[in-house]
Write a structure and sequence with these properties.
This protein is mostly beta strands. The chain has a single domain, classed as Neuraminidase (6 Propeller). It is 3% helix and 49% strand. The protein has two helices and 27 strands. The strands form seven sheets. It has a five-stranded antiparallel sheet with strand order 1-24-23-22-21. The longest helix has 4 residues. The chain is globular. The two termini are 33 Å apart.
């Protein structure tokens, strides 16, 4: 694939982030809807979800792909906490769970104010150990990615789980369908996608919030919009550029919200994460496949 076919360069700043000799590699194909990639540098592998097939997959360099867990309870988003443990959003269980080193599953959240969550979607962990996750209704809208059910929560919220007490609190309640989320590299802002246009006319944008007192979100503001499809999952590099999923590939936004370029992907992209030993390889889940491409920037992800 030529560089013109691979990239849509909108701003010279994008040229400094891409390698001219790099190519988009398809690492695996055979999913129904690939989602939730997370890199394990200590194990040199990537985990990701194949939601409708109810499994978590694992890819190892030079070792290919295999099934990590099946059934998965329709796991969607994944991340790691600061101890390196896998934290997952389960559509099937309508809960957020943690996988312990011995394989046991610990439930971190499944209810708010006595009512079941909708279907936790994406999750991130802050350096203080707090866990932040989105709770749209996608996993209960049909039996394809979970179990069809009526929502018990009146709104589609974003939640925070306190690292010390385990207390769950809603930190944002005005989204149509909150989806991907990520902290800025300095953790002073939290960015949250609203993919409500998948079922409504609007929106298809990412909003930014200031994080106050390590637990509250203030100063909600528009950051960017996706012009093809909806924003699902996204991650930041160390320079504060935001790399987001879209229908036509991966969109890269500068810290000022300007779309500076796209990586064109043959299938609709759901999520991205940085990985590899130097965190300079962007792993991309896209409909049926797992892709990867090397960049000249590094991901702002821990551990």
């Amino acid at each position: 694939m030529s560089q013109d076919a691979l990239y849509d360069i909108r701003d010279d700043r994008f040229n400094r982030l891409i390698a001219g000799s790099a190519r988009l590699e398809e690492l695996y194909s055979g999913c129904r809807w690939a989602e939730g990639p997370v890199w394990f540098s200590d194990l040199n592998c990537l985990l990701w979800s194949d939601i409708p097939n109810e499994r978590i997959m694992r890819w190892v360099p030079d070792g290919g792909a295999s099934v990590f867990r099946s059934p998965s309870n329709y796991v969607n988003g994944n991340t790691r906490d600061r101890q390196g443990r896998l934290v997952s959003c389960e559509h099937g269980g309508r809960r957020v769970t943690r996988t312990e080193p011995d394989g046991r599953i610990t439930v971190l959240a499944d209810r708010y104010k006595g009512k079941r969550l909708n279907s936790p979607n994406d999750v991130v962990v802050r350096s203080d150990g707090s866990i932040w996750f989105t709770d749209p209704s996608y996993g209960i809208m049909s039996d394809y990615e979970g179990h069809k059910a009526e929502p018990e929560q009146e709104t589609r919220n974003v939640y925070r789980i306190d690292a010390g007490t385990g207390e769950i609190e809603a930190v944002a309640t005005d989204f149509i369908q909150p989806n991907g989320l990520a902290f800025s590299p300095d953790e002073k802002q939290l960015y949250i996608a609203d993919s409500g246009s998948s079922n409504h006319e609007v929106p298809r944008h990412i909003r930014a919030f200031d994080v106050v007192d390590d637990r509250k979100l203030t100063n909600s503001r528009y950051f960017c919009s996706i012009d093809k499809g909806v924003p699902d999952g996204f991650r930041f590099d160390v320079a504060g550029n935001l790399w987001s999923s879209a229908a036509d590939g991966v969109h890269c936004f500068a810290p000022d919200g300007t779309l500076i370029g796209k990586i064109k992907v043959p299938q609709t992209v759901s999520n991205v994460t940085f990985g590899g030993q130097k965190k300079n390889r962007l792993f991309i889940t896209a409909t049926q496949s797992l892709y990867a491409i090397y960049l000249t920037t590094n991901g702002a992800q821990y551990p």
